[in-house]
Amino acid sequence: MELLVSLCLGVMMACGVYLALRGRTFPVVVGLTLIGYTVNMFLFVSGRLHTNLPAVISPERLNYADPLPQALVLTAIVIGFGMIAFVVVLALRAKGELGSDHVDGEKEEVR
Amino acid sequence: MNHWIVLPLLLPMLVGSIIILGVNKDIAWHRTLGLANTIIVALIAGYLVYLSATGPIQVYVLGDWSPPFGIVMVLDQLSAMMVFITSLLAVFCLIYATRGADKLGKNFHALFQFQLLGINGAFLTGDMFNLFVFFEIMLLASYGLVLHGGGVKRTKAGLHYVILNLVGSSVFLVGVGIIYGTLGTLNMADLAVRISMASPDDAALLQAGGLIFFAVFALKAALLPLYFWLPNTYGFTSAPVAALFAVMTKVGVYVILRVYTLIFGEHAGVAANVLHPWLLPIALVTLVAGAIGVAASRDLGRTIAYLVIVSVGTLLAVIGTFSVDAIASALVYMPHTTFITAAMFLIADMIRQQRLDAGSTLTPDLPVKQHRLLGLLFFTGAVAIAGLPPLSGFTAKVMMLMGVQESSSVAWIWGLVLVSGLMGLIALGRAGSIVFWKTLPLDDSGKGAYEKKPHESAPAFSLSYAFPAIALIAISPMLVIFGGPLTEFAHQAAAQIKDPVQYVTAVLGSDISALLNETEGGR
């Protein structure tokens, strides 16, 4: 499971970085979203990987999953949503004001 | 538990929310609420400074969940001082904003309060994840403030700023994940204890975590490879916002100082002093890059934005030696540079408003209308920022140069700090002479050919309009007059920072902090 999870995270991060380095706002936003998801997954995994373990303490269970990363991830997801929403709106506004969806606001080259 | 500690967070949050609810109310209502609250927060922050200087480190445990499980706010001398600087600066920036800049968009005053909440929170928090949360609050509010007023330049600079900081936030979370995964806690005091007992197997992970944090803090503080967003963002945003942002880079400086003395300091066992080889060279290179930027920029706003980078480079170069004297002198320099760069942003804005054609670009134009007032302010600001006597820049710089004498790289620090000061002085002198002296001969109507007349339609400023800039400049001689108590305070604060045991004792109790002493002795 560890190998699979780390592979997934690596591939997602690579895709996110690739997209974020493109010069257009739409791929950049998608890339940032992917990076955000990867980081949230990573944060979640920092509490170790378990199957079928509760995060809530109860007298019947001997082992628990660590609840703290789950709480952290919830917060991080909410913040991430807010940020992505903001970037989308800003990208739209930049498209309107700069007349181009290039992150530097440069006009389309004629090919 | 002292409830005053949490008020610099609660009041801006409450008042900001109230202002949002009344978004369609009269602007006077927004201004009254915003200003009144900012002044109250500044007074409370002043009391907190007094509290921190006269007593031990205080801890506010939210919800009474005993540390390390709950969320804590920690008030030591460093955080109290930073909160006070922020609140005082915010008062003057807000007064300047009420002269008209706040009317360009609807939610300026609410965003301003949330900005205060974020900055104060970042200074007071004692928990790595909460540091992340307060960073995000600070950043979201700053995104709104940067874009306030709109315009092509602001949108473009804002887009870069937002995207870069989003990447920065992700990197921060990676650091948090690594540190939590290896140590199992995020409370700063608890981290300090556990990292000192960490096994050598985790050394690589912990060091990586520490340096990943540094990447994020360097982005906030605008250190060398990560400062390219700053000149445009600060140069093109509205003046009161740019002036308030003079303290935002200091948030980066503050967390570097906090995290790398408390958590990754000398007590940190396998990850001890992880930043020491990196900070000083990076800060010095930043200083050089900033000085070159100051000399090269052709716009008054950008010149001052580069001066912010120079000040961060100076601060961190001095802090990079990690000696008590050096840190103390950096703490004396901190208020000086924050207030003076903020004042310069405001002065540059007033100059821009009176130069209708050239604006803040450094090309010859008609003379400004009130050349006496603006010239005097600009001159005083330039003297203060370049570190000439008799203003506070001089005393602070002398203290810093004395403070780093023990360091092995003293020649580099002395040389680069002094040369960058000279470059700043030359650049500001050139800017001043273009703005005030090298003016266009005009009025070609007959005999008035050599009479230089300012723009008739440019706004004239009363003394009350210029009050925030004058007051911010006037803080500089104050820092000299009250230099004795300030220096004493800074030395105490630096001693407190360099001794994590005090911090851990305050948060976790003396039983736990004894562990820290033990590991240090055993090593």
UniProtKB/TrEMBL annotation, chain A:
It holds the Pfam family Oxidored_q2. The chain crosses the membrane at residues 26-45, 71-92. This is Multicomponent K+:H+ antiporter subunit C. Coiled coil: none annotated. Belongs to the CPA3 antiporters (TC 2.A.63) subunit C family. InterPro entries: CPA3_antiporter_subunitC (IPR050601), NUOK/Mnh_C1-like (IPR039428). Gene3D superfamilies: 1.10.287.3510. Keywords: Cell membrane, Membrane, Transmembrane, Transmembrane helix. The lineage of its organism: Bacteria, Pseudomonadati, Chrysiogenota, Chrysiogenia, Chrysiogenales. It is found in: Cell membrane. One of its GO terms (cellular component) is plasma membrane. It is a multi-pass membrane protein. It comes from the Bacteria.
TrEMBL record, chain B:
Residues 126-421 form the NADH:quinone oxidoreductase/Mrp antiporter transmembrane domain. GO terms for molecular function: NADH dehydrogenase (ubiquinone) activity. It is found in: Cell membrane; Membrane. The chain crosses the membrane at residues 6-23, 35-57, 77-96, 108-125, 131-150, 162-183, 203-229, 241-263, 275-296, 303-324, 330-351, 372-391, 411-437, 458-482. One of its GO terms (biological process) is ATP synthesis coupled electron transport. Its main location: membrane. InterPro entries: CPA3_Na-H_Antiporter_D, NADH_UbQ_OxRdtase, ND/Mrp_TM. Keywords: Cell membrane, Membrane, Transmembrane, Transmembrane helix. It is a multi-pass membrane protein. It comes from the Bacteria. GO terms for cellular component: plasma membrane. PANTHER family: NA(+)_H(+) ANTIPORTER SUBUNIT D1 (PTHR42703:SF1), NADH DEHYDROGENASE (PTHR42703). Belongs to the CPA3 antiporters (TC 2.A.63) subunit D family. This is Multicomponent K+:H+ antiporter subunit D. It comes from Desulfurispira natronophila.
